[in-house]
Amino acid sequence: MKIVRHFIYGIAIFISVPFISIAQKIPPPLPKIAPDLLRQDFSLLQKILEANHPSLYWYVSKQELDSSFQNGINSITDSLDEWQFKNRVASVISQIRCGHTTVRFSKAYSKKAAQYRYPQFPLLLKAWGDSLVVLNSAIPRDSIFKRGAIITSINGRTNRQILDTLFQFISTDGYSDNYKNQVVSGNFPAWYKTIFGLDSSYQIKYINPKGDESIAVVKNVNPLLDTGKRQIRIPVLAAKKPTRKELRKAALLAKRSLTIDTALHTAFMNLSTFGGSGLRSFFRRSFKKIQEQNIPNLVIDLRTNGGGKVSNSILLTKYLADHPFKVGDSVVAISRKFAYGRYIHPSLIYWLAMNFGAHKMEDGLIHFRYFEKKYFQPKEKLHFNGSIYLVEGGYSFSATTMFLSQMKGQSNVKILGEESGGGYYGNSAMHIPNIILPNSGLQISLPMYKLVINAQHPKGHGVMPDIPIPPSSEAIKKGIDLKMVIIKELLQHKATG
Hints:
Elements: E1 19-20, H1 35-52, H2 62-74, H3 82-93, E2 103-104, H4 107-112, E3 123-128, E4 131-137, E5 150-154, E6 157-158, H5 159-167, H6 177-186, H7 188-196, E7 202-207, E8 213-218, E9 232-233, H8 244-255, E10 256-261, E11 266-271, H9 279-292, E12 297-301, H10 310-320, E13 330-333, E14 344-345, H11 348-356, E15 359-360, E16 366-367, H12 369-373, E17 387-392, H13 399-407, E18 413-417, E19 426-429, E20 434-436, E21 443-445, E22 449-452, E23 467-468, H14 473-478, H15 482-496
Parallel strand pairs: 11-12, 12-17, 17-18, 18-23
Antiparallel strand pairs: 1-9, 2-21, 3-4, 4-5, 5-6, 5-7, 7-8, 10-11, 13-16, 13-22, 14-20, 15-16, 19-22, 20-21
Helix pairs in contact: 1-2, 9-10, 10-13
């Protein structure tokens, strides 16, 4: 199970070096699509979801969702560009409250998306609760909006009004808004531009260093635009180009790593995905090293782990669980037919998987019996029995939530951080083909199975931490990882008794 992220997390870093001028053409306006074609796409999407989506009505009634689709279709009275149409569709899809049912731009737009990035709102902001805090500013020589600065409103909209508006276009499991906070934090300028459009300037209220509310006016930024008066800073490339082997090693370290802190007698595992190859050998090497060095504490950082292969999630659970476990109480699809298969890609491979790997039961649903019935046993060799600290956040999703759900409540496990984005009760995923609408080219992910991890779990939110550690503007200002600081304090306290 793999979550499709709305935007890749990244922060632009400006480095002071000699100025070099770069010309940037103004991109042409996005082409408009005729209203009748857009209405056809909207209506087709509704039919596909009704035919195959397993949990359309988990959080919204059929009557309410039908009404939302109809209102969305009726609202299209004129031609729209792809941005505008995507917003209309996303605002309806988000009401399903399924984090695996997401709306993405067309492949054609995605290839040229970079040229539409600028101009944009100049501040990258971290969102949580009712807070917006500056992570980075693209304003040259910005003396006001330093990292950690607290924003209270933008152009007359309070933080809550801004976030409530943006959240209407983001899909998540149930009511776990923490995932939406993470998505907005990953690229606030893009979300602001996509939903609110561009303003000529922004009146921003903020808390000044004295603790008082002040106002500053800023403009959009376009660092690639050469007006003849402005120039942009280009970093000088350092040293030699890294080899392919070095690049592969760096990529692997970003996905998974293990370090041992001998002073704290603790192993720190960073795991940003359950996808890709090599995790089986990584787990084996890691737990062997932990056992050889007789390490009693293990911290696993899952804050950026959006999921991946269920088999890898199961494997990690086997190294840590103190009890037999299964994937879910029920794993069901409503149909294994693809009446609209020509719009679902790839459809054949999933048709084969569902016809030869699942069974239609007396309730008329298609059951993935292996995951419903199979109990996995904890490993005997290299099993870790010490104290386990699992760090979660809004990006902890899908297969990661399955792992967290199995581990929560175990006597030697503490979950720390923020509510997971993935549902504690369950989600819809397993097989996730892609709908491509014929006229607009919009892509919508289509989960095929509804997974109830545990019917006794509360429904509607993610895995809640045993020790909540919310973000902090002061920690952002200082550039410290507050969650890891607190975990290390807990470990030090444990070591000293």
